[in-house]
Design brief:
five-stranded mixed sheet; 7 strands
Length: 147
Amino acid sequence: MNDTSTSTPEPVRFDTKIAVLLRDDLETWQRLNVTAFLVSGLGTQLPEVVGEPYEDADGVPYLPMFRQPVLVFEGTKETLTAAHTRALSRSLPRALFTSDLFTTGNDRDNRAAVRAVPTGELDLVGLAVYGPRNAVDKVIKGARMHP
């Protein structure tokens, strides 16, 4: 008799990808801040990326998190601009962070800072993209995994 109940299950391979692309000249605190802001945008608008709530052995509940890994990349300003253009052309869900947002102190001013700049002139420091794996790979082409 062959008992397969103790075998290791196949790893889950997602058809989609969550990618964050950061400009390579950011300070460490900026990279962390930008990443947190960017992924919060995806989680609020794309319920399918959020998994089930967590609970520890004592029954203490915790908020749900993304159901899949978030891959973080870095690239030059030009790489970010190209990725943004490709994300727009593919109509992929995206969140952006511009250099202007480092000088604002609240959500209203953040939105106004982005609204004041034409698309082609945005000084991007971060971009989050979600979609089919192949499409996201094409968007972030030229970027490298964040060390």
